[in-house]
Design goal:
The protein is built from twelve helices and two strands; from the N terminus they run ααββαααααααααα. It is mostly helical and 254 residues long. It folds into two domains: 162 residues, no CATH class; 64 residues, no CATH class. The protein has a two-stranded antiparallel ribbon with strand order 1-2. α4 packs parallel to α6. The longest helix has 23 residues.
């Protein structure tokens, strides 16, 4: 289904188009059309398992809580505008017509004319905050045993509108900047590596002594190595004129 939700159409025309579909159709069409432009929209859902006032289990439901987006930035913005247009509410007159239709379908308490007009205005003004298809689905697409409270309608509308809102938030969110690339390791020549090792006392004499030792396999062998090992102390292999020997000599004088 192709959606023409550009600014070429008036809000009234967009709302009328939305009201002729249900929210699932509109959401699916938005995802499909975004995909055709190289933008992937993956809405993430979580389950809700509410309990009643007496601890009884109420019907569970799935709620959209996020949307993963990928694709070129230019196409993202174009699809963000399309999703934003898909949030267009119905005109007040249409909402009032749907409320009037619901009032003859379900039992409700009869009030005086002033209260009826106040109720109609209160519901209509609040429902104007949701897309036209969401409001029509909440009022006439669901089976209500009695006139719904605003708490009940609010929950239904929020759940129905959540996927589109999450799509818009994901499309408008700027991609995270990539982590800075690590600086390439400096290549050290063999001569430079040898110089660094010798500077810290790792001279051929010491390497040869360490390599001559057999690896200890038991605790007793390890203790024997510590008593009899022929590994020289670092002072025996360090450069006599090196900074380490000078620091060691200074320390012995303190």
């Amino acid at each position: 289904m192709t959606i023409d939700l550009t600014h070429r159409n008036s809000p009234e025309a967009v709302a009328a188009w939305l009201a002729s579909r249900n929210p699932a159709e509109v959401d699916g069409a938005l995802v499909s059309q975004a995909s055709s432009q190289g933008v992937a929209l993956a809405v993430r859902y979580e389950g809700r398992y509410p309990l009643g006032q007496n601890g009884e289990r109420l019907p569970s439901r799935s709620v959209a809580v996020g949307c993963e987006v990928s694709g070129p930035l230019e196409a993202r913005e174009e699809n963000a505008q399309r999703v934003e247009r898909a949030l267009t509410p119905a005109v007040p007159r249409r909402i009032e017509e749907w409320l009037a239709e619901l009032s003859v379908l379900v039992p409700r308490r009869q009030n005086d004319e002033f209260t009826e007009r106040l109720t109609l205005a209160a519901y209509s003004s609040r429902l104007a905050g949701y897309p036209a298809d969401v409001v029509r689905e909440a009022l006439l697409g669901r089976i209500w045993r009695f006139w719904p409270s605003w708490h009940e309608l609010h929950q239904v509308c929020e759940d129905l509108a959540a996927p589109r809102r999450q799509m818009l938030a994901g499309l408008r969110q700027r991609p995270a900047e990539g982590a800075p690339e690590a600086e390439p390791r400096k290549q050290v020549s063999r001569e430079e590596a040898q110089r660094i090792l010798e500077e810290y006392g790792f001279v051929p004499k010491r390497f040869a002594a360490v390599q001559a030792l057999r690896m200890a396999r038991t605790e007793d062998e390890l203790m024997a190595h510590q008593r009899d090992a022929s590994v020289p102390h670092w002072t025996e292999t360090a450069d006599p004129d090196g900074p380490e020997m000078k620091m060691d000599a200074l320390a012995t004088q303190l």
